[in-house]
Amino acid sequence: MVESNRSLTQTIVQDLGLAIVCGTYSAGNPFPIEAELCKHYQVSRSILREAVKMLTSKGLLNARPRQGTWVEPEQSWNLLDPDVLRWLLERKFSLNLLAEFTEVRLAIEPQAAALAAERGSEAQVAQIQRAIERMEAAEVGDDDPLLADIAFHVAVLEASGNRFYARLQDLIDTALRISIRLTNQFKGVAVASVADHRKVLDGILARDPERARAASCALISEAMELIQKVQSESGKTGKGESEKTGP
């Protein structure tokens, strides 16, 4: 029963969260009353309240004494929450959002690679090597190229030995599912360059922080250049931001 309730709560969170981000419930307006939502989802008040509590923790809702629950403006949303980021990407495929996320990656991943070279354990470095092997297998159709690529970037974060970086793995996973498909599409390839990723691994294996940092920076900078190129071309054609939910 507990597991069933948890599943129901998550379903409601996903449904209402996406609805808020997509504008079904507008910022600055009152959220539907509890009784109305309970009737709609056919759930108890306790399950609905837990879902609202979770959405409040993500910055989407705000419970006001004697005023009910209100929808918060976008600037209050927690963009570091994987669910919020995914809802934003599903709402509107945004090159600007991807560019901002890639800027965050440029600030974090090269340093994580340098730290991995400096203090990554043998087991952690082996995990990065396995991710490279998965990427090689994906080139011949023996693994999922997207999941293999994500596994590489997550393994580098974990090998950094920095607990804050490691906690970003869910966020990185969420956004990379869109970003990697996009950049590969721009390059006209189905899988990422294993050689470019291997340069990061080589720096880590050599225990050379600056080499690993430079290779990681070059890898992500290429993605940024592709995004900026498409942004420029979109501006010239007047297309602007695409309304697609993904590439």
Summarize the structure.
By secondary structure, this protein is mainly alpha-helical. It has eleven helices and two strands. It has two domains: about 1-75, Orthogonal Bundle (Arc Repressor Mutant, subunit A); about 95-235, GntR ligand-binding domain-like (Four Helix Bundle (Hemerythrin (Met), subunit A)), CATH 1.20.120.
Question: Could you walk me through the main structural features you see in this protein, from its secondary elements to its overall organization?
Answer:
The protein has eleven helices and two strands. A two-stranded antiparallel sheet has the order 1-2. It is elongated. 34% of the residues are buried. It is mostly helical and 247 residues long. β1 and β2 (68-71) form a beta hairpin. Helix content is 70%, strand content 3%. The model is unreliable at 242-247 (pLDDT under 50). The chain folds into two domains: 2-76, Orthogonal Bundle (Arc Repressor Mutant, subunit A); 93-237, Up-down Bundle (Four Helix Bundle (Hemerythrin (Met), subunit A)), CATH 1.20.120.530.
Percent of residues in β-strands: under 5%
| CATH first level of the largest domain | Mainly Alpha
What is the CATH superfamily of the largest domain? GntR ligand-binding domain-like
Structural class: mainly alpha
* H and E string: HHHEEHHHHHHHH
Strand count, sense and barrel status of the largest sheet are: 2 strands, antiparallel
Distance between the termini: 39 Å
CATH fold-level topology of the largest domain: Four Helix Bundle (Hemerythrin (Met), subunit A)
The main sheet orders its strands as 1-2
Supply the CATH architecture of the largest domain.
Answer: Up-down Bundle
Q: How many H/I helices?
A: 11
Q: Roughly what is the average pLDDT, rounded to an integer?
A: 88
Strands, count: 2
CA radius of gyration is 21 Å
GO molecular function: DNA binding; DNA-binding transcription factor activity
Protein name: FadR family transcriptional regulator
Pfam families: FCD, GntR
InterPro entries: GntR_C (IPR011711), TF_FadR/GntR_C (IPR008920), Tscrpt_reg_HTH_GntR (IPR000524), WH-like_DNA-bd_sf (IPR036388), WH_DNA-bd_sf (IPR036390)
